[in-house]
Amino acid sequence: MSGALSWPFLRLYILALFYFSANAILNVIIPLRGESLGASSTVIGLVMGAYMFTTMFFRPWAGQIIQKHGPIKVLRIILILNGLALILYTFTGLGGYFVARALQGVSTAFFSMALQIGIIDALPEKDRSQGISYYSLFSYIPGIAGPVLALGLWNTGGMDYFSIFMIAIAMVTGLFGYSVRIDKTKEHVTETTPGQSGQKSKMLESFGELVRNPFLFKCSVIMLISSIIFGAITAFIPLYAPQLNNGNAGVFLMIQAAVVVVARILLRKRIPSDGRWHSSFMMGTMLLLTLAAACVGFSIQAGAIIFYLGAGLMGIAQAIVYPTLTTYLSFVLPPSNRNILIGLFIATADLGVSLGGVMMGPVADVLSFSWMYIICAILGTAMIVFAYDRRGLLIGTK
Description:
Layout (H helix, E strand, L loop, with lengths): L6 H30 L4 H29 L1 H18 L5 H29 L2 H16 L1 H37 L17 H12 L1 H4 L1 H27 L8 H18 L12 H24 L1 H29 L5 H21 L1 H7 L2 H18 L12
């Protein structure tokens, strides 16, 4: 095998699989552990939201630091930090979990950027999109088995087996990560970059584009609201599923992750790639997301079948919305600061996932998990309308 499927790149994808396997377990264990300690949904949401909030905050700096020091050097430092965060889970309570989630957020900001920049630098242009797609797929694969494993650990071995798994994942990820190599392709030419003050000034100026640029504004709002719904699912399904007859959080998250992986493969050629805003396509995607949240919300009355149907619909929507919006922005944003603006767009996704826990936790405390997910469906309905381009203003050019 050659190109994006050659052994050096397979090692990077496997490293992503190891790295994100801890999160697939933690997304179930942390809410259950928090509930057992008497924490409210608000507190659990804050702990879960700390991860993506710190990822969002540090992501803009990650790209600059990696560009200066190289992906491998940064990656090795981050693997140590990630290992410390995972070990912290083994002997602390909820307060330590908050610190560990924040450390994981910092690690993920640098880890994901280091691997993606490394893949882009090392692959020729014709193979780069394929390399990033494989990286994304491998990062989702742990979500298929991880939630079921987490429930098994929680129901049988308690926190002892959980601690063993966290230490094992930290060691395997660190040792495997230290052995990877990333070589720049001959096609890649390192360009001189402006001074740090110039970069910071350009980045600060770009924040205004979130509002001024109609393409970026629409995509960012849709991504933010979609990610709030995704975040609410991740944070609170482990607490909501036991309220249903035959409801199982591990099965739900496994179905969702499996559908994301399969849909990414089967629908990859269906993603619009012509620089035009396809209103019907995006409205249909938002309809899927709305139906998914509604199925979850009403499943307390309708039963487990509707609950798991919501998992499948959520997986399809999750597989479509991010690559569709990112591909569209790659065409319509100005080349001079395209990377910075796409970075800001990605940050809105991180922020949305964080708000899904932080903002929806108090809603669940005041109302209920069922009503919280119904409110998510209402937000999705608003995005169906928002995705419509009534005047054809969002037609970009290649």
